[in-house]
């Protein structure tokens, strides 16, 4: 199938490098004909993004730090000025102090709790509001979440709490914008090796554990997460909104480790 996104334009936020989940999504979208604008967090990331964006013919790249609401406003003002309207958004942004992505959740500081929530959760609400304002003919938005929102994942700590709030935001935003034919969903990805992922203590153990115990006995790939994001942004999912769509080789359905693992 080709051309699922032909004629559609949208924003991808969160490409830090070629391992970013957002880059997997951008590749999948571009392969189906989407025109993509990127936002990046500061010039150091801008430098890494430029050659990647060039690979898929993107030229609209905007610096945006979601901690600074003026830069979020400026991003959407640029999109409106350049394109008039957009059809989709990928929000693949998360941050927490890595010193708190280990040990006890109970030790989370007020300062890092607030910062984690603003960057990893509330930024999606701010982005969604501004994106919806320039989605004149309906649209679709996807954010990235992780199963540590629903079940305790050692060391994921405050990120799990932020992801739970992010998932609730998806449902409220879906209800807000549904009447305008704007859909809001999340992809809950299994663990992948990325810059942000490496910030969680013992990330490698988590990756190996899920590989051994997921029904499919493997981890997911960037392409698989990208293609599921594409599905949620394309007309193939026209009737779907407010969903948390797991792309985790089935890991989330298990209530105990795989028997072959236990018997090994
Ligand atoms: P990544 O490090 O490649 O991407 C994280 C992005 O967040 C970076 O581009 C970074 O610049 C951006 N970011 C952080 N703070 C920002 C700020 N203040 N303003 C603007 N951008 C900011 O890592 P990733 O794993 O691709 O993460 C993307 C999303 O996927 C995150 O929400 C993450 O929680 C989620 N996720 C990751 C995994 C995994 O295992 N890697 C699994 C499920 C969900």
Instruction: Count the E strands.
Output: 7
Rounded to an integer in angstroms, the radius of gyration calculated over CA atoms is 18 Å
Question: Which small molecules are bound?
Answer: nicotinamide-adenine-dinucleotide
Helix content: 40-55%
Distance between the termini: 42 Å
What does the model show?
The protein has 264 residues and is α/β, with parallel strands linked by helices. It has a single domain (9-250), classed as 3-Layer(aba) Sandwich (Rossmann fold). It is built from eight helices and seven strands; from the N terminus they run βαβαβαβαβαβααβα. Strands 3-2-1-4-5-6-7 form a seven-stranded parallel sheet, with helices on both faces. It is globular, with a radius of gyration of 18 Å. Nicotinamide-adenine-dinucleotide is lined by residues 14-16, 20-22, 41, 45, 64-67, 92-95, 119, 144-146, 189, 191-192, 194-197.
Please supply descriptive tags for the structure shown above.
globular, alpha/beta, seven-stranded parallel β-sheet, 264 residues, 8 helices, binds nicotinamide-adenine-dinucleotide, Rossmann fold
What's the arrangement of secondary structure elements?
Layout: E1 9-13, H1 21-31, E2 35-40, H2 43-55, E3 61-63, H3 69-83, E4 88-91, H4 110-133, E5 139-145, H5 157-177, E6 182-189, H6 203-213, H7 222-233, E7 244-247, H8 259-263
Parallel strand pairs: 1-2, 1-4, 2-3, 4-5, 5-6, 6-7
Bound molecules: nicotinamide-adenine-dinucleotide (NAD).
Write a compact overview of the structure shown:
The chain contains 8 helices and 7 strands; from the N terminus they run βαβαβαβαβαβααβα. It has helices at 21-31, 43-55, 69-83, 110-133, 157-177, 203-213, 222-233, 259-263; strands at residues 9-13, 35-40, 61-63, 88-91, 139-145, 182-189, 244-247.
